[in-house]
Write a structure and sequence with these properties.
CATH superfamily of one domain in chain B: MetI-like
CATH superfamily of the largest domain in chain A: MetI-like
Strand order of the largest sheet of chain A: 1-2
Mean pLDDT of chain B: 90
Number of helices of chain B: 14
Radius of gyration of chain A: 24 Å
Mean pLDDT of chain A: 89
Largest interface: A-B, 93 and 90 residues
Largest sheet of chain A: 2 strands, antiparallel
Order of helices and strands of chain B: HHHHHHHHHHHHHH
Oligomer: heterodimer
CATH class of the largest domain in chain A: Mainly Alpha
Number of strands of chain A: 2
Structural class of chain B: mainly alpha
Chain lengths: 293, 268
Amino acid sequence: MLKVLKLKRKQNIIGWGFILPATILIFIFYFYPIIRALLISFQSGVGINLSYAGLINYRRLFVDSLFKGSLSNVFIFLILQVPLMLFLALIIASLLNDHKLKFRGFFRIAIFLPCATSLVAYALIFRSIFALDGFANILLMNLNLISSPINWIGQPWTARILIVLALTWRWTGYNMIFYLAGLQNINPTIYEAAKIDGANAWTRFTKITIPLLKPIILLTTIMSTNGTLQIFDETQILTNGGPANATLSLSQYIYRLSFEYSPRFGYAAAISYVIFLLVAILAFIQMKVGDRR
Amino acid sequence: MSRIIRATKYLFLSVIAFLSLFPFFWMLNSATNSSVDILTGTLLPGNHLGENYQTLLANTNLIQALWNSFRNAVVATIASLIVCSIAGYGFEIYHDRVKDRLMVILLLSMMVPFAVIMIPLFMMIGKANLMNTTTAFILPTISTAFLIFLFRQSTRGFPSEIIEAARIEGMGELGIFIKMYMPIMRSTYAAAAVITFMSAWNSYLWPLIIMQKEASKTMPLLIANLISGYVIDYGVLMLAVTISILPTVIIFLILQKNFAEGIITSIK
């Protein structure tokens, strides 16, 4: 009996040994920086010469038009892009969930493939296609849909739409994979029964697929919201935050404040806490709403 | 009626698949054309591939950047797999109330936006004199809650009889992990490797901050730099983009099943 207890204790110590390196690294490189950023957000100064400044940085947020602008930009991306992409991914996944469908493997890989590209790389490809004298304009003009080229990255709303299109291209397949996995757990006889009862494809989609996939839809919504609030690479490469900061994102503004202008780490940290708060609040709301339905 | 629906289905999926693949075609095709031809909207392959390559080699540190990206990504992947797999195994096999709670706390780190920890991390790396190094590149990403969680979830399917039997035969706990667990969990390791390698290879913001020396620049930094001039040579740019995404696309095409399994483990 004593021997068993001793063995258990020994195993417990070894178990701690196994998890400790990873745990310590996460504490050093995630949790410590979070606290540090909070402290920095109450400091002000240039570069690393920081001194305590109370709530000055947070007060400044309310009068900074560039901050308010970038905040509304990410919300525009969020509201336009996340529902569009998730809806598209859901439709594609339910079409691909049909075992009788031909070329199923091809469709799946083709739609999933954009996930293999780096954000910088695909932003550059889109920038080339949607340049003023790029392929998109040539095509639209040859089809007589427009009479003169559209300056995609030169106008606020076309630039924003371009970001939304690019994001949708890159991430729809990624979300589709989650839905496909979820659909595999749904018993096909439910669909058969609904068919016999006369439910059409749309009714089956809204009354069976969506309710049963709800946890996964919730998860993908939280992930996409989280990602969009932090968007950096696309707005940096594709539109460079322009024109006139119409696509400037919060992460980009933080980057510029810290590493492009004379460094204002305190104020940048305060903005970063706004992103943190938004991520937490939106995830909380989404979980509440998701639970109720 | 049902034939029309079926045809619409195929048409819809074909259009989506076409839109997904067209940018890849555009990129490859542009890499073989001159900038002038590209701006006419040509969809035919050109004969400027060699020329574009020479220009790219002459104007950038292509080989150096490829090597930097490769080295950083490989070291990051190996380090992550070792640290996170042993932790995931530990959290499942030796689990008790304290360790389960700790896992939940670690999972919270997944919600932390990179923008929040970016400035403190930058200061830490600066203080430790690690700017421009592979160590600086990998340190914040070696241990991720996502990978630990992935290994913990996969360990649930690992038969405990194997562990018991090995213990009776007098095998040490670390020996069981290395000799029994690691070989059997090959597919989980493959999934974790694809995800880690791709995210390290593609990472942009972190190297943008810490890789300030020309000699330590990685591929994403190199291709992003090609648009900094007033005139963009699209042929050269698209060739550079092609080279930068080739490794991940190849890995993806070979291991896309593992990649898909890896990312959806979080919903099981």
